[in-house]
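Readers of this paper often ask what the protein records in our data store actually look like. Such a record has a labelled line for the sequence and another for the backbone structure tokens. Nothing more is needed to write down the fold, since each code stands for a local backbone conformation. The remainder of this section carries one protein's record, kept here as part of the documentation.
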Amino acid sequence: MNKDQEINVQEETMQEEPAQQGDTLHAEAQEGAEPQVEQAGAEEAKDPRQQEIEQLKAELSEQQQRVLRTQADFDNFRRRTQKEKEELAKYASSKLITELLPVIDNFERAMAASTVDPESDSLVKGVNMIFRQLEGILNAEGLQPMNSVGQPFNPEFHQAIMQVESEEHEEGVVVEEIQKGYMLKDKVLRPAMVKVSG
């Protein structure tokens, strides 16, 4: 190679080096910019996915709340049904006992009337034994007579059939019991028919 050719090669090399350096810098700048663009694009790409995740979390939370409410409703239903069943069993005998109350009344009337005649003493004892047996069975079922005389009149427990003047009692007090009232456990089975002082 001659001298001119060497100079041309050197000049070309010198021109290529800055161009290559410029290309390298440009390429590096582009590479540096690409991750930023990719990051921005990734954030934009994550954004719909993130939104979908948030939406699914909200739906899951809502479904969990529904399940909890449904479970609570079912528990309440089960407790209410159990309570109704217990109430039904508790007062299952009330119809039969209500029908037996007039029989008890008649027993009491018969025993009160028969004490006058001494000849019927053995009969009275027999009837009294039958009555006590019946009374024991009904008491075991939860039947209790109300004690009304001397108590303040209460419309939940008493049915006033007459108002009378009384010097012994204050106004609004039960003076006399015409028909005995009964409670079955904690429920009024039959209110007492009473006379009330006025």
Observations:
- The chain has two domains: 1-90, 91-197.
- The chain has a mean pLDDT of 80.
- The CA atoms of residues 114 and 124 lie 6 Å apart.
- The longest strand covers residues 158-164.
